[in-house]
């Protein structure tokens, strides 16, 4: 049959009968085999198997958008689980691009965008690819309906559970975990704290930029107050300088250790500044609180000394 029904493109071969394209295959030998398979089955796509032996390999096939897709090859016959996994991966990234369908990256933000009826719609902004792909995959499986999201959903790619919230028709991922045992009040409070820290320049979360003026409304919607272990955002008067009103949520001794650091300060100078607190476990207590301040991002260790971070 030679190359009948085959149309060569720049980097692939279309299998065509009449005006209908039945498949687009990269390799000529594979295209000939699949063409012959279609002829054998009278061009009936419902008769095309998911796997078929071809030489020493098994071809894994899927019918997507009324076309045969060659989604993989295997030396042994693949399980149904493997077939389903490869089919999902192909749907999500048919062109083997860097991020898959509908995801682009601008600076450090991953954006989900889809054109519907000629108009571009943004479905969300994310600070990591895992969250962006999770939301994109869920939308693909639910016909791009954001209202299909529940509070907690499972991500089959990362094998994690994720807390989501739809705000102004955009999907936000609030938290991720290996289990679905979330304290939602805590999750909501920490999410609001991220927005607040971004708003007041205490941290950078550009993917939350559109929410920085919605904090009060979100507190009402979530039924919780903004909650952060380091900062307190209570009773901020927006007409005055917010940074002068934000206070630390630190224990008294943590605050004393923090206040003892001026510029780059050695451990010995910190101890001298805190000599009034000297007790049996003086050195251990100071080191422990310095570690806590470093963990909270308020202090950084520089060589043998410490300095405050630029918050």
Notes on the protein architecture:
This protein has 311 residues and is an alpha+beta fold. It folds into four domains: 6-80, no CATH class; 103-177, no CATH class; 184-247, no CATH class; 250-308, Arc Repressor Mutant, subunit A. It is 30% helix and 28% strand. It is built from eight helices and 17 strands. The protein has helices at 28-40, 80-92, 129-141, 184-199, 215-222, 252-259, 267-273, 282-295; strands at residues 6-8, 13-17, 20-25, 51-54, 57-64, 67-74, 103-106, 109-116, 119-126, 152-155, 160-167, 170-177, 231-232, 247-248, 265-266, 299-302, 305-308. The strands form six sheets. It has a three-stranded antiparallel β-sheet with strand order 1-2-3, with helices on one face. Strands 4-5-6 form a three-stranded antiparallel β-sheet, with helices on one face. Strand 7 and strand 8 (109-116) form a beta hairpin. Helix 4 runs antiparallel to helix 5. The chain is elongated and about 95 Å long.
């Amino acid at each position: 049959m030679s190359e009948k029904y085959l149309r060569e493109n720049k980097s692939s071969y279309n299998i065509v009968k009449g005006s209908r394209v039945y498949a687009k295959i990269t390799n000529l030998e594979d295209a000939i085999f699949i063409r012959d398979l279609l002829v054998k089955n009278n061009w009936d796509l419902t008769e095309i198997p998911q796997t078929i032996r071809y030489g020493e390999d098994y071809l894994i096939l899927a019918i997507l958008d009324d076309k045969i897709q060659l989604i993989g090859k295997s030396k042994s016959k693949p399980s149904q689980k493997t077939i389903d996994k490869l089919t999902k991966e192909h749907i999500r990234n048919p062109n083997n691009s860097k991020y898959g369908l509908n995801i682009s990256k601008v600076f450090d933000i991953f954006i989900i965008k889809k054109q519907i009826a000629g108009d571009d719609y943004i479905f969300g902004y994310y600070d990591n690819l895992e969250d962006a792909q999770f939301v994109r995959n869920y939308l693909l499986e639910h016909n791009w309906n954001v209202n299909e999201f529940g509070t907690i959903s499972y991500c089959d790619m990362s094998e994690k559970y994720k807390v989501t919230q739809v705000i102004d028709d955009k999907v936000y991922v609030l938290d991720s975990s290996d289990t679905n045992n979330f304290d939602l009040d805590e999750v909501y409070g920490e999410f609001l704290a991220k927005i607040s820290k971004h708003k007041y320049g205490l941290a950078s979360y550009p993917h939350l930029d559109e929410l920085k003026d919605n904090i009060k409304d979100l507190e009402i919607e979530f039924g919780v107050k903004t909650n952060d272990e380091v900062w307190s955002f209570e009773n901020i008067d927006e007409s005055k300088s917010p940074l002068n009103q934000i206070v630390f949520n630190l224990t008294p001794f943590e605050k004393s250790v923090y206040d003892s650091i001026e510029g780059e300060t050695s451990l010995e100078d910190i101890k001298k500044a805190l000599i009034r607190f000297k007790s049996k476990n003086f050195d251990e207590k100071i080191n422990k609180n310095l570690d806590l301040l470093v963990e909270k991002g308020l202090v950084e260790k520089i060589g043998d000394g410490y300095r405050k971070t630029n918050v």
